[in-house]
Amino acid sequence: MDIDPLNQKTSPHSRDHVCSPILGPVDRVSFFQEQHRRRRQTWRLSALSIFAILLMGLPLAVVLTPLVYLLILVFVKMVNLLIPVPHIIYQDLKNSAYLVTSTIELLFDPATRPLIPLVSLIKFATVMLLPGIIVMTLLWLGLRSLFMHAGVGGILLTLRAREPRSNNREEHQLVNVVEEMAIAAGIPAPRVMVIDSDTPNAAAIGSSPDDAAVIVSRKILDEFNRDETQGIIAHLIGSIGNGDLKMALSIIVIFQAFGVVFTIFDAVLNFSRTAWADLTKMLKWIFAGRNDPRAADGIAAMLTHNLGETRDDGLLALLKDDQPSSSNWIKRALKRMPLLQAVLLPFMLFNVVAMMLQLEIFLIRAFLVGPLVMLLWRSRRYLADAMSVQLTRNPDGLSHSLITLVEKGAVIPGGQWAEHLFIVGSEAERTRANASIQSELANLRQKIKGSSGMKRVTNILTTITKVREGNRNNLKAAEEGTWSGEIGGISSHPPLKKRLKRLQAMGAAMAEEKPQLKVKQILQNTFAILVLSPLILFIFWLILCAIGLGFGLAAGFSVFFAGLSMRLIYALL
Amino acid sequence: MELWFFIGAAVFISLVVVVMYNRLVIKRNRFQNAWAEIDVQLKRRHDLIPNLVNAVKGYMQHERGVIEDVIRARTQAIAAGNDVVSRATTENALTRSLRSFFAVSEAYPALKASENMLALQEELSSTENKVAFARQFYNDSVMEYNTARETFPTNLFANVFGFSKATLFFMEDTADKELPKADF
User: Fold this and answer.
1) pLDDT of residue A372
2) Cross-chain Cβ contact A1/B132 below 8 Å
3) What integer is the mean pLDDT of A545-560?
4) Considering Cα of B149, then B150, then B156, then B160, what sign does the dihedral take?
5) Measured between beta carbons, which residues in chain A are less than 8 angstroms from residue B30?
């Protein structure tokens, strides 16, 4: 149904390509079935991610509670100076503080642990967790609306995106394609921007379907024909229409909320100057600098980075004497008044707790939350592929363009922060690296056919190491600063081979190739799996123990800290 | 105790009914909007044709028949009004005349090379695509609405609330269904 009188480019369908098509029979599915499957997968992964994020945040919530209590106490006392506060409020606060301290005492004594009634345990959990959870949720909502209103200006400027020229035929055609796809999807047409870049790639950015923009690299216009461009645009518009932009924003903001909390801890309770600088930067942005389009991205990057950072100019750094950059004013004050150490001791204790929390958050993020969020994002990519087939009714367009993008696509330099929003990310680079290893090994096999045993093995190993070293810099450049680099351990895009397989299941035609897997190779793989599986299981067990230990330590420390502080507050009341 | 149970059940059922009703309303509005969108694209096509005729007047002076076909089909399409069947017939006639017009224009290389004509061709083909995609979106929305209306819990209430089945956009066009005669 697509008329394209200007379609003069041939498809790469019959060329030799890096990513070989999938062999064997593939069960044909309709794109509706595929979409249904991916939506259910999204629900499952979302539930798991939320559970993992709660796991990550609970110890932090426990630590936040006494601080919230302290703030409420101070606020109530200040209000009391103006208007006499009814005694009931004091009584309520006192009761909750007493409940917390008494339950903790009972919990820590193994004799009384089973005797605690369930109701009081539930009350205890509520008092301990609820203020922290409420604070974190409010912070999350606030940051989310801030970043949503910040708009997309920053990244457009960084990538030097421009409006499409109306006199250029290709760019005008691009605008038409975007409008067509928007009609097919039933959403308002997003803004179209073009980047004059050598790497073919395209992204959808924004915070909602009303505010979205589609960025396309000029290389795509030069090399891809109308069908392939349409497939790519349909993928992007499908993902916009499905609300992927909001989902990405919500997920990123969770980590930024954590970052804010840790920055405040570092500034107020660790006396770190760099943390104060960060805080002032953020406050300036919130109240004064929202017109600067690049500021939002800078703040976002800073907050995510602060999540794992241990400051070297805070209180705890004083414990390591070899830090020349540690806070000199604290050192000088301590030298003058050694008694100050006694006053600063509770702050030091708190900072130890904060370090435990950072460790726990790192462990759970690296092994649990990160991979889950990446898997969640991957399911949205599959869903967007299926939407592309629905919108264009032509799976070949997208599959041809993906085959070309394997060979040439990469993250556009400067766009790493939004890498997850591009149609291919750093996994293209990785596929090319693996393919080059395979081809080098194939060449090697010819050369070393005669040589025996040890020499053969050393040849293979040196080749692999050489190729890996050569590719390492490319891979590093591709992954640095990306969402998958900061948050998740695995890449945010599904492997291109799997995407092609799903497209083939939806009807894309793939060139047939003679089977490459020989029986010997299959047996070798099975043998390797059998031998390695105890090792793999052992590694999983270690990881689980690390997560459990981290969580347990953090939870223990935070409950201990909360109990101590509540006791103090109870004494103050 | 039992009173609370009944109240709870009643509240739950009414919530479920509210959710179902809202779902149906959203889907119905979506496909009605999609129908209006088809209209918009068809009108846009009507508006582009005079430009097309002006662009080719100088080059295709011997092909008056084809050009006049296009103009006539356009006038009829504009005059068709809101009746679905006559709209469909006249719009199909316009599509056919445009197709033969483009087929004939292939034989005029000077016309093909002119920037004006290329831009116009792109606009017209894009408009044809937009009409097609608008119909596709309409059909997809109608399918979603009908499925939502006919699946189990919702179908008990749909007729009560006045949600009737929507028709898909398909064109009973005998001329399109005829196989093209291959004459070698």
Assistant:
1) 93
2) yes
3) 87
4) positive
5) 186
Nearest to B145 by CA among B37, B54, B26: B26
Residue A320: strand, helix, or coil: coil
- Mean pLDDT, to the nearest integer, of A248-253? 88
Please give the CATH superfamily to which domain B35-163 belongs. LemA-like domain (1.20.1440.20)
| Global ipTM | 0.84
**A523 and B CB contact within 8 Å:** no
Cβ neighbors of A116 (< 8 A, separation 6 or more) are A103, A106, A107
What is the structure's pLDDT at A348?
81
Q: For residue A160, what are the β-bridge partners?
A: none
**Which chain A residues are Cβ-neighbours of B131 within 8 angstroms?**
none
| Residue A500 to residue A385: CA distance in whole angstroms | 10
Instruction: Give Cα separations from A377 to A200, A242, A249, B86, B159 (angstroms).
Output: 22, 12, 12, 48, 40
Is residue A59 packed enough to be buried (19+ CB in 10 Å), middle (13-18) or exposed (0-12)? buried
pLDDT confidence of B180, banded at 50, 70, 90?
Answer: low
Determine whether the interchain pair A180/B140 forms a contact, defined as Cβ–Cβ distance below 8 Å.
no
Instruction: Give the pLDDT confidence score for residue A417 in this predicted structure.
Output: 72
Cβ-Cβ contacts under 8 Å between A and B: the total is 53
Q: Which among A1, A2, A3, A175 is the top mutation candidate for probing chain B, defined by the most B β-carbons within 10 Å of its own β-carbon?
A: A3
- B-chain CB neighbours of A179 within 8 Å are 126, 130
Instruction: Return the structure tokens found at B85.
Output: 């069947």
Give which of B92, B133, B140 to mutate to test A binding, by max A Cβ within 10 Å: B133
Instruction: Give start and end residues of each alpha helix (H) in A151-243.
Output: 153-158, 169-185, 218-223, 226-241
User: Per-residue pLDDT for B86 more than 50?
Assistant: yes
Whole-number Å distance between alpha carbons of A559 and B7: 41
pLDDT at A2 over 50: no
Q: Which three-class secondary structure state does DSSP give residue A108?
A: helix
Cβ atoms within 10 Å of A153's Cβ, excluding its own? 16
Strands in A50-149 per DSSP E: none
d(CA A245, CA A190): 13
**B125 and A4: CB-CB below 8 Å?**
yes
Nearest neighbour of A179 by CB, restricted to B30, B119, B130:
B130
Q: Do B125 and A181 touch (CB under 8 A)?
A: no
Q: How far apart are CA A555 and CA A405, in angstroms?
A: 46
Is the per-residue pLDDT at A322 higher than 90?
no
CA distance A215 to A296: 19
A3, A6, A184: residue with CB nearest B133:
A184
Domain boundaries, chain B: 35-163
Q: Residues 117 to 136 of B: which have CB under 8 A from any A CB? A: 118-119, 121-123, 125-126, 128-130, 132-134, 136
**Does B136 sit within 8 Å of A393, measured CB to CB?**
yes
β-strand A213-217 against A191-195: which pairing, if any?
Answer: parallel
Spell out the residues 6+ positions from residue A387 whose beta carbon is closer than 8 angstroms to its own: A31, A35, A185, A234, A235, A237, A238, A239, A241, A242
Query: Which of B52, B112, B126 to mutate to test binding with chain A, by most A CBs within 10 Å of its CB?
Result: B126
pLDDT of residue A118: 82
Looking up tokens 């509520």 gives: A126
What DSSP element (H or E) covers B34? helix B2-57
Q: Shortest Cα distance from A490 to chain B (angstroms)?
A: 35
Sheet holding A191-195, edge to edge: A191-195, A213-217, A202-205
